[in-house]
Amino acid sequence: MPYDAEVAERVRDALADREDVREVKMFGGLAFMVDDRMVVCVSGGGSDLLVRVAPDSDAKHLKKAGAARAEMGKGRSMGAGWITVDKKALAKDLDYWMDAAMSFHAQGSGDKKKGK
User: Fold this and answer.
1) By three-state DSSP, how is residue 91 classified?
2) What does residue 112 show for φ and ψ, rounded to 5 degrees?
3) CB–CB of 79/87 below 8 Å?
4) For the chain, which domains are there?
5) Mean pLDDT of the region 108-115
6) Measured between alpha carbons, how far apart are the two ends of the chain, in Å?
7) Which of 25, 31, 77, 107 lies 20 to 30 A from 1 at CA?
8) In degrees, to the nearest 5, what angle opens at C-alpha 70 toward C-alphas 69 and 71?
9) What are the angstrom distances between the C-alpha of 91 and each of 20, 64, 85, 97?
């Protein structure tokens, strides 16, 4: 199933003020990369959004409506900091999730260029 074009367009709008964004097909959907690091991915299997957040704030984010631990296949957790958010929750909370993803991104965690 293709990714949800409406959700993808809303993510594009949320990142429109940045010049360092590119879109990459990955995880069966459409990932949005900032500085060559994924911040969110619009699911190809439905209308969920995969969000990369700080692992130490993971528990707080999982308390939000529509949020769940991201899985790769049945029962295989992607680990702390990887959360899926359903489309119903995105209708009112996309800004929250984009802020959470960009906050983690700003920390530089996982930056392959770290140390430059």
Assistant:
1) helix
2) -70, -15
3) no
4) 5-107 (3.90.1150.30)
5) 49
6) 40
7) 77
8) 115
9) 25, 13, 10, 11
Q: Residue holding tokens 């879109």? A: 23
**pLDDT higher than threshold 60 for residue 18:** yes
Task: Give me the residues paired with residue 67 across strands.
Answer: 85
Burial bucket for residue 46 (CB in 10 Å: 0-12, 13-18, 19+) = middle
Positive or negative, the CA dihedral 37, 45, 11, 55 is: negative
What the block records as the tokens of 46 is: 């439905």
pTM equals: 0.87
* C-beta neighbour count of 85 within 10 angstroms: 27
Q: What are 31-67's pLDDT values in tens digits?
A: 999 999 999 999 876 668 999 999 999 999 999 999 9
